[in-house]
Design brief:
The protein contains 6 helices and 14 strands. It has 211 residues and is α/β, with parallel strands linked by helices. An 8-stranded mixed β-sheet has the order 2-1-3-4-14-13-12-9. A 4-stranded mixed β-sheet has the order 6-5-7-11, covered by helices on one side.
Length: 211
């Protein structure tokens, strides 16, 4: 069966480089798949895999989703009800939370219990920008990560504080440990950018498409 990977276009996110990374994996691994960028809820409903990128401020990203008629409903039907594999990237991961404390208090999608808070660092620059490692603390997921001893590319000042320990899959240290991978059933989120993380980022994309 041909996979349809839809990268959600809501005006905020590194969507072109994300598409190129997915296309590269599809070609190299001979997946029967198409990769589309779309802001059409119908494409979301027809997808086998859904990717939500994001960059910038939480409130702007959430508002971008809300402005597309039917988009949040289509996402919830596909991901929550029909259990299609979903990957949130950077702010796309943070939108999964119940709320964010970035520049005020803002409601998120609420798919994973927890909130978005500012990194607490001393004598370190914000945003946290550059390469850093991820320690996998929860292997009980359908998706394999294969990221031990690998560095991934981060650009962020806020992190996902999960309410439930079982939703934390990976941790990264920058002044203190913060959650860098979350999961709940078919829903995955990564704080780093796999599309900017060289071969190890492509491995993560491949493992996501294997779902």
């Amino acid at each position: 069966m041909t996979k349809k990977i839809t990268i959600v276009d809501y005006g905020l996110g590194n969507i072109v480089s994300a598409k190129q990374s997915f296309l590269k994996v599809v070609a190299e691994k001979n997946f029967e798949a198409e990769v589309v960028i779309s802001n059409n809820p119908r494409d979301i409903k027809e997808s086998s895999h859904i990717v939500l990128p994001g960059q910038g401020a939480f409130e702007s990203c959430m508002n971008g989703l809300k402005k597309i008629p039917g988009m949040i409903g289509a996402l919830e039907e596909s991901v929550i009800k029909n259990k299609k594999p979903f990957l949130g990237i950077c702010v796309g991961m943070q939108l999964l939370a119940e709320k964010s404390y970035e520049n005020g208090q803002h409601l998120g999608l609420g798919w994973i219990k927890g909130s978005i808070k500012k990194l607490e660092v001393k004598n370190l620059k914000l945003p946290h920008m550059g390469w850093n490692s991820v320690v996998i603390v929860n292997q009980q997921t359908d998706m394999k990560f294969n990221l031990e001893n690998e560095d991934l590319y981060f650009v962020h000042s806020y992190f996902f504080e999960c309410s439930k320990k079982e939703n934390v899959v990976g941790l990264t240290y920058y002044g203190s440990n913060f959650t860098s991978i979350v999961c709940k059933e078919n829903i995955y989120g990564v704080q780093f950018h796999p599309e900017k993380s060289s071969d190890q980022g492509l491995v993560l994309i491949k493992n996501f498409l294997d779902l």
